[in-house]
Amino acid sequence: TQSQFLEAKVPQLMSNSNERGNQHSPWIPDSTVQEVCDHYQGLADEGKSNFMSAVASGMGVRHDKILTEASQLQSQVGREDAAILQAEKRLRLSLVPGYSTLFSHISRLQGGVKFLVDLRADLLDHLLSQQSLQNEAELKALNDTLKDLLIGWFAAGMLNLERVMWSSSCDMLEKISQYEAVHPVRNWTDIKHRVGPYRRCFVFTHSSMPNEPLVILHTALTRDISASIQSIVRKQNDIAVGVKSGEENPEEAQAAIFYSITSTQKGLQGVELGNHLIKSVVKELQSEFPSMHLFSSLSPIPGFRDWLISQINKQVKDEHNTSLFTSQELDSFKSALNITSPQALSTLKKVIVTNEWVKSESLVKSLQSPLMRLCARYLYVEKRRKMALNPVANFHLRNGATMWRLNWLGDTSPRGLAASCGMMVNYRYYLENTSSLSQRYIETQNIKASKQILDLVGNGSSNADM
Ligand SMILES: CC(C)(COP(=O)(O)OP(=O)(O)O)[C@@H](O)C(=O)NCCC(N)=O
Questions:
Q1: 100, 28, 4: which is closest to 59 by C-alpha?
Q2: What is the ipTM of this complex?
Q3: Which of 322, 325, 343 is nearest to 334 (CA)?
Q4: Whole-angstrom distance, CA of residue 152 vs CA of residue 161
Q5: Is 238 helix (H, G, I), strand (E, B) or coil?
Q6: Residue 294: beta bridge partners?
């Protein structure tokens, strides 16, 4: 079994072996460490899960040893500093699990850090997949240790900021296209446009994973803050067409619009690479365009349409509940839908699910106000464990952005209609406020929103300054 393999290979790391003295980092030959990695990579999924459980349970901290060291420390109270510091050090060492030592050894192998990134991706899948894991607490402790090590190895200072251009390697351009998770790249023309004039594509790479874009940020340079993604990813940017290939007029680059960000390594979830990348790109653009002063995302709103449908389903049973739509709105739907029957809501649901509504001008008109109101509520009011329910909102708010403008028909592609009835939102980065807003959101879940958003939500209280 996996435990027997580990007992045989690295007994000095196993918590039940008396070989696990209190020497901090027992010496393990690289060849043995490599054997452990090769063994793991040769396993099928089931074997990998068993291996991770064996590591989590067999290489964890020794609880009895921790208690012993803790009582030892207790008995030093009142003694001189040296004795207390020594006892504290022994306690600290007893809190280091064997697998932490194993991971440090693996990280020093060629390709070792990449191995650990992939191992964590497997571990996260394992934690997500099976509900009742008998040693779930130990697996979570293993994940925490691995995540903390990765956060150290992928700290902002260890990352390389690279700009991807048409002249970059085909390999990198191909990876950028394949990893794109927000607005799919259809062909080489698409990707050429996204790295062409008035566009910036930046990635972070890391020496342990050469030529691998860890996180990708696509930015459009525009005169003011964009409300529509079609103007960015579809038709040629009219300014770009006007200039000779490759030239840009800095006067036209007053705003940086982040319209797609993708983290490519599942094993680096929680390392917040996207947040670091946005900050680095802002600095990079400010030095390239000193007059640039507008920084904002143009973000999708995944999940809004599904949420709206679920709200309608709840209401269909109770026709007179006007918490969702006012009676005037329902009347205008009926005339736009050309129906008189009371099933306005179920008919409305159908045209929303099929995206049919966007073809009817009168429906588009009658839906704009209620859908914008409900979408603002979805973004600003709906929570999951106290944080914003929408993951993209949560990401930008954690970075310290302001929920700034909801855009009607910001993305009229099938994807945009299916995700959020075509709406998009700008999360605006007021550079002087981001760190304080980030801290406030993380500590108090307070969302900084503009007057437009607050008026749509109907709070009335509005930050008139924005
Ligand atoms: C939004 C992203 C980039 C945030 O990543 P990151 O900043 O590294 O945060 P985290 O994954 O460390 O919590 C990431 O969650 C992602 O790639 N999401 C899927 C694509 C998207 N933009 O929604």
A1: 100
A2: 0.96
A3: 343
A4: 17
A5: helix
A6: 255
Place of tokens 């009742």: 132
- Of 222-236, 298-312, 377-391, give the lowest mean pLDDT range: 222-236
Query: Which pTM value belongs to this model?
Result: 0.91
Query: Which of 100, 107, 296, 299 is labelled catalytic?
Result: 299
Ligand 1 centroid–CA 124 distance in Å is: 15
Q: How many residues does the chain have?
A: 466
| Dihedrals phi, psi of 288, to nearest 5 degrees | -80, -35
Q: Name beta bridge partners: 209.
A: 206
Where does ligand 1 bind, in terms of residues with CB under 6 Å? 181-182, 215, 261-263, 269-275, 392, 395
Containing 52, the helix (H) or strand (E) segment is helix 45-58
Which among 200, 208, 203, 196 has a CA at the least distance from the CA of 172? Answer: 203
**Atom number of ligand 1 nearest to Cα 302:** 23
HEC states along 351-400?
A: HHHCCHHHHCHHHHHHHHHHHHHHHHHHHHCCEECCEECCHHHHHHHHCC
Q: Which range has the worst mean pLDDT, 172-186, 200-214, 228-242, 355-369?
A: 228-242
- The pair of structure tokens assigned to 336 is 């736009």
Neighbouring residues of 448: CB distance < 8 A, sequence distance ≥ 6: 397, 402, 403, 433, 437, 440, 441, 463
Burial label for 169, CB within 10 Å (0-12, 13-18, 19+), is: exposed
Measured from the CA of 276, which atom of ligand 1 is nearest? 7
Name the pairing type of β-strands 383-384 and 387-388: antiparallel
- pLDDT attached to residue 241: 53
Residues 171, 212: contact at Cβ < 8 Å?
A: no
Contact residues for 431 (Cβ-Cβ < 8 A; gap 6+) = 282, 295
Predicted confidence (pLDDT) per residue in 309-329, tens digit: 999 988 877 766 677 888 888
Q: Find all residues with CB under 8 Å of 445, minimum gap 6, and list them.
A: 383, 386, 387
> What does 126-153 look like in DSSP terms, one character per residue?
HHHH-S--TTHHHHHHHHHHHHHHHHHH
Q: What percent of the chain has pLDDT over 70?
A: 92
pLDDT at 106 over 90: yes
Cα-to-centroid distance, 263 and ligand 1 (Å): 5
For the stretch 148-197, pLDDT in tens is 999 999 998 899 999 999 999 999 999 999 999 899 999 999 999 999 99
Interval between CA 200 and ligand 1 midpoint (Å):
19
Please answer whether residues 102 and 115 qualify as being in contact, where contact means their C-beta atoms are separated by less than 8 angstroms: no
